[in-house]
Amino acid sequence: MSVLELFDVHRTHGHGETAVRALRGVSLAVAEGELVAVMGPSGSGKSTLLNLAGGLDRPSDGGVAIEGRRLDGMRRRELAAVRRRSVGYVFQDLNLLPALTAAENVAMPLELDGVSARAARRTALAALADVELADCARRFPDELSGGQQQRVAIARALVGRRRLILADEPTGALDSLTGEAVLRLMRSKVDGGAAGVLVTHEARHAAWADRVVFLRDGRIVDASGPLAQPEQLLDGAAS
Ligand code: ADP
Ligand code: MG
Fold this sequence. Notes:
Blueprint: E1 2-13, E2 20-31, E3 35-39, H1 46-53, E4 61-66, E5 69-70, H2 76-86, E6 87-90, H3 102-112, H4 117-130, H5 146-158, E7 164-168, H6 176-191, E8 195-199, H7 203-206, E9 211-216, E10 219-223, H8 230-233
Helix pairs in contact: 3-4, 3-5, 4-5, 5-6
This protein binds adenosine-5'-diphosphate (ADP) and magnesium ion.
């Protein structure tokens, strides 16, 4: 079953003379257990695609469905619940809450969803252990290094039973060890039954994916099956 489906999605940013056609008819389905890498030049529409996939933005035309449910017909509240429960976003922004400890930051989305405080804390501690921060659970963000804060944010993005994991160049601001850890974590969430979309400009990161789609000028121009030789796919797809 497809966890994520995009049906002939168009997205134009702005109006009139300054309008930018960021996506021009993109269709994509991502099944459970599948991690898809999206590559393409800067400005090709990668982030726009990811924002639409997660319900953070709406298409100008076409549709998006998560777990078989079209987002376009949903009310705001319903859409917010889908975003909170089903979708995990790994973006470069951290947005940790400074007044909460690392464990409390990670537990927050679970508690918002009605998980008991005790169960949320237990799950949060496990998520922190996954990013090798078990020892930092009681620290506040300003007591953590930049890299540790990023890992807390990643643990929070992936905690719980997210069915769809979206990552926009998640390793961009991370040191290479932390970057690998994020990809490994994403891969294991996907292997556990989620679906994932990973925007990246690095072939060695795309190699974690089951397939790669290339965007250019808002269209999918190429798609590969399982990655045999990722370097071949990089031709003409700089950053
Ligand atoms: P990528 O992530 O591949 O670099 P984006 O999806 O960010 O590409 O952007 C695709 C195109 O849409 C670019 O030309 C970009 O300038 C434009 N764009 C993106 N977001 C906006 C916005 N909010 N308003 C106007 N133009 C935008
Ligand atoms: Mg981008």
